[in-house]
Amino acid sequence: MRNDCMTTEEMAALLDGRLTAHERRRIDAHLENCPSCLAELIAARAEYREFLSPPAGRPRRRGSVALAAAAAAVAILAVAVLLRSPAADGDLRAGAKLVRGIVAESRLGELRLPGDRRLPGLLPAHRGPAVEPEAGREAERRLAAAAGRHPKNASIRLLLGYLYLARGDLGMAEVSCREADRLEPDDPAILTALAVVRYRLGRNDEALGLLRRASSFSGAPPETFYNLAVVAARTGDAALSAWSRDAYLARDAGSPWVMQLRALVP
Fold first, then answer.
1. Rounded to whole angstroms, how far apart are CA atoms 5 and 86?
2. Burial of 180 (0-12, 13-18, 19+ CB in 10 A)
3. What is the pLDDT of residues 134-174, one digit of tens each?
4. pTM greater than 0.85
5. Is-contact 39 22, C-beta < 8 A?
6. CA-CA to 99 of 20 to 30 Å: which in 66, 106, 153, 163?
7. CA 128 to CA 121: how far, in whole Å?
8. Which residues contact 201 (CB under 8 A, 6 or more apart)?
């Protein structure tokens, strides 16, 4: 642990929104470069959500936000000794399955999220059946546990980013996608996901820059070009929008989103 790592009190203040703007900027900058604190924050957030809204039939636990954060920090350190392969991690597989359902059921706006090439088949191309409200908490708990065991795994951070985005928590979605990008720089799927978050935050120029960068890689997913077509149109670059639309159609002509893209970018 570094000397500037988050204290339990700071983590508690972050979770319940008591930080000043200056403190939040300082902590955000720290989280970008400290996987340990990020893992603890993800676990603490899952613990805090359960503390506030326990599953049906389970009584609310006594305690405080600080105690919940401290307990989660201890738990994440305890499971870190389990060094199994991410692909075989039961929590990761279960969390990924839950995120698939949650994302399928969520309305994410104009843009599309890419599938993760490291864990194929996670995201469906169309809306699925209804998801139980408790699924979000369970997915967060599962992925937080997997993140503690595999602190250098970008897929887990990307899945958490998708989960937070689907639930409307754009701040945590950005933190998670930024951490995925730190772990695997220049991955076009991660850059595309981060662009979706920035677009939802109203930072269209940043989203456009990320999508331009993602589209320059040979392995860019079709969703990169779909999103680039939409964002370029919204920022007034008609030529780039048309080129990106055609690039998407060339890559994924059978997509159920073709008609929607043609409506957005005639």
1. 26
2. buried
3. 788 888 888 888 888 888 888 889 889 988 888 888 999 99
4. no
5. no
6. 66
7. 14
8. 170, 174
